[in-house]
Amino acid sequence: xxxxxxxxxxxxxxxxxxxxxxxxxxxxxxxxxxxxxxxxxxxxxxxxxxxxxxxxxxxxxxxxxxxxxxxxxxxxxxxxxxxxxxxxxxxxxxxxxxxxxxxxxxxxxxxxxxxxxxxxxxxxxxxxxxxxxxxxxxxxxxxxxxxxxxxxxxxxxxxxxxxxxxxxxxxxxxxxxxxxxxxxxx
Length: 186
What we know:
Blueprint: H1 3-10, H2 24-34, E1 46-51, H3 54-69, H4 74-80, E2 93-100, H5 106-123, E3 127-131, H6 135-138, H7 144-148, E4 156-165
Antiparallel strand pairs: 1-2, 2-4, 3-4
Helix pairs in contact: 1-5, 2-5, 3-4
């Protein structure tokens, strides 16, 4: 099996990380690959924030927990009541991906960059988890101060993130794939 297909098959969402620091050069490699991900008309409408401030991660998670508990959505309330609720899954670093608001396909382009980061991390022996849940509070006026602390350029909004670190869990086997998801025409 070729290495790309093997990496795609090996990638799992990691939710527990060691406290070992991720090397700066590994983060740079991951970012350099994200920057060459496909984007509509090669617009590259992204901005990346390497977040190593666990206090800020905890504050963002606490804000999202408040929103989840007040949501009235049973699944969100149940998750928010977990004793170790943390949008960033305990990772020592997260790479946040923000989209240029004016880019018509900014969300899709940022999704491409985010997926690329998870695959590169897997190929380097690092664990990762692709998340969007962290951005919920940052998109509400009540938590504008948290958003401001990310120092995003004007006209950019947070979309996705990759929690990144050295894996502290044995990933579970992949769940069965949903059947009947492909149609052929012609």
